[in-house]
UniProtKB/TrEMBL annotation:
Summary of subunit composition and partner proteins: The complex is composed of two ATP-binding proteins (CysA), two transmembrane proteins (CysT and CysW) and a solute-binding protein (CysP).
Transmembrane segments: 12-33, 53-79, 91-113, 133-156, 177-199, 236-255
Compartmental location: Cell membrane; Membrane
Gene3D superfamilies membership: MetI-like (1.10.3720.10)
UniProt membrane topology term: Multi-pass membrane protein
Protein name: Molybdenum transport system permease
Coiled-coil ranges from the UniProt annotation: none
Organism whose genome encodes this protein: Terrabacter terrigena
Chief place of localization: membrane
InterPro entries per record: MetI-like, MetI-like_sf, ModB_ABC, NifC_ABC_porter, Sulph_transpt2
Length: 261
């Protein structure tokens, strides 16, 4: 009787679990099955792919640098602050995670556009950000920064607070403690956060096309090129998609020990 009940429980849970796996795996399998593997090298060498690849690598690397320089201090303050305002900052930080990307693009346009909150103050100096490569970096940073900050904050929260107490006893300032003790100890978390933010920036579409447009050689990244090629030559779109899928799998492999344990 007990064996029969255990079997029914496994079936009741296993069927929806199996369906969940199929919903995620079958589309990826379909992408691999529909690919013309002999064409992939030539498709990735076409004149439209190489500029998009170069632009994607440039903008995502710039995004990772911005996340490192700006996100690390923010993660530090969030990890060590008990002020009620910190919880609100953390909540605001997670908004881009659930916000539709196109809404993020509209928000960026309302901020940096010619009549935007900050853009109208830059316009008299001849500075125009929308529909430029800078706009691509801002859009990618907007969606990728939360991933980095939350990952690094989690790593910093795991630090033994006695280390900071000892450092203060020895006369170390907050900046010196952060530079010489905290950051070296959380380097795996920083590396994981950077990889996650870089991968998220590489796949960004909605905010980029809304705020930066889709101009070849200037703002057309790989996801935007997939969108264009899907109507012009679907096989090229499939080849680029497989390349992006491979990058995602590699990033997951890097993060496996930390995130998927």
């Amino acid at each position: 009787m007990r064996y029969a009940g255990r079997w029914r429980t496994r079936v009741a849970l296993g069927v929806p679990a199996g369906l969940a796996v199929l919903l995620l795996v079958v589309p990826l399998l379909a992408l691999l099955l529909r690919a013309d593997w002999a064409r992939i090298p030539s498709d990735l060498a076409t004149p439209t792919v190489l500029p998009a690849l170069r632009l994607s690598l440039t903008t995502t690397t710039s995004t990772a640098v911005l996340c490192l320089l700006l996100g690390t201090p923010l993660a530090w303050f969030l990890a060590r602050s008990d002020h009620p305002a910190a919880s609100w900052v953390r909540a605001l930080l997670t908004v881009p995670l659930v916000l539709p990307p196109v809404v993020g693009g509209v928000a960026l346009l309302m901020t940096w556009g010619r009549n935007g909150l900050l853009g109208q103050r830059l316009a008299p100096f001849g500075v125009q950000i929308p529909f430029t490569t800078v706009a691509v970096v801002l859009a990618e940073t907007f969606v990728a920064m939360p991933y980095y900050v939350l990952a690094v904050e989690g790593a910093m929260r795991g630090l033994d607070p006695r280390l900071e107490s000892v450092a203060r006893t020895l006369g170390a300032t907050d900046l010196r403690y952060l530079r010489t003790i905290a950051v070296p100890l959380v380097l795996p978390g920083i590396a994981s956060g950077l990889a996650l933010a870089w991968a998220r920036a590489l796949g960004e579409f909605g905010a980029t096309i809304t705020f930066a447009g889709n101009f070849q050689g200037r703002t057309q990244t790989l996801p935007l090129l997939v969108y264009v090629e899907l109507e012009r030559d679907p096989q090229v779109a499939i080849s680029i998609s497989i390349m992006l899928l491979a990058v995602s799998v590699i990033v997951l492999g890097v993060l496996r020990g930390r995130w998927l344990r």
